[in-house]
Amino acid sequence: MLVDGKWMENWKPVQKADEKGRFVRQVSSFRNWITPDGAPGPTGEGGFAAEAGRYRLYVALICPWASRALIVRKLKGLDALIPVTVVNPVLSDQGWIFGGYSGADEDPLSGARYMHEIYTRADARFTGRATVPVLWDMKRDVMVNNESADIVRMLDTAFEHLAPSDLRLYPDDLAAEIDALNRCIYDLLNNGVYKAGFASSQMAYDEAVEGVFAMLDELEERLTGDYLFGDRLTETDIRAFVTLIRFDAAYHGIFKTNLRQIADYPRLSAYMARILALPGVAGTVNMDHITRGYYSIKALNPTGIRPVGPKHIRALFDAGN
Ligand SMILES: N[C@@H](CCC(=O)N[C@@H](CS)C(=O)NCC(=O)O)C(=O)O
Fold first, then answer.
1. The domain spanning residue 245 has which CATH number?
2. Which residue's CA lies nearest to atom 11 of ligand 1?
3. Any catalytic annotation for residue 184?
4. Catalytic: 63?
5. pTM of the full structure
6. Are residues 58 and 115 in the same domain?
7. Residue among 58, 63, 205, 295 flagged as catalytic
8. Ligand 1: which residue has its CA nearest to atom 14?
9. Where are the alpha helices (H) located in 162-234, listed in sequence order?
10. What's the CA-to-centroid distance between 52 and ligand 1, angstroms?
11. Domain region containing 284
12. Per-block mean pLDDT, blocks of 10 residues, the chain (321 long)
């Protein structure tokens, strides 16, 4: 991680643990919002008006948080307005690195080698982990935001005048329910799999795995319609999807969340396939980056060997995902 703008030590996957060995994720620190006219958003400062070609999204295709921003960019038809840079799926000793892998880009802005250079460009004395996604303002040359939950929300509304869309992923009438379900899905499932994978005590692992499968069971029960809120696709579906699509291919093995697979849940499997079939979504899912990335986490898999299965995941590879 960076301390006072300097890279301090070799990259380690566990960001922080509590006294019982539970994985603790870092809180994001750049929290400005793009808005239609540059007025301040719910957090941070103003001055970030929606403009075509002004902002760049840095992502890793292995990363579920980055992927949710990427999916929303697609679904809202913002590809032409917001260019994307994809990092190498394999974390280096200095965190995310640019280029050097099929489907990974060089940094087009500053020719940076590591993602942490993007952070020190934003704040020369930055302390923390250099995470993706990052939304960068190429006009002011500053970081707008590095929290995917915020990025998802601003992409839902800020560019409406430039790219009109009927899709509203966080509609007012569902806001409270979306927030409540997001909280459970984040804690037990999205971050729950990481808590299982990076637990440093049996107790922390057991607790996390119990939460993961309790949440999956609950979602399976709930899914009587096409989406979690009936027939309307919302950001909650995108949040669930990014973990479901990685589950059998990566988490079930590398994070040991192996009580069941998504393939064992009929409704969740159909739901995942439904979202994958939405226009543009399949293009954001890169099974090679996902499996290569997770299975190269040295602390969990020192040899870096990628498993050949499970078999049903091969179909996703073969479909070009
Ligand atoms: N709160 C952030 C979390 C992002 C995050 O943890 N990203 C991981 C990849 S999945 C990362 O970049 N980790 C690099 C590191 O911790 O050094 C968000 O949702 O945007």
1. 1.20.1050.10
2. 131
3. no
4. yes
5. 0.95
6. yes
7. 63
8. 131
9. 175-184, 192-197, 202-222
10. 26
11. 173-318
12. 87 79 82 97 96 98 98 97 98 95 96 97 94 97 97 97 96 98 98 96 98 98 96 97 98 97 97 96 96 95 92 80 68
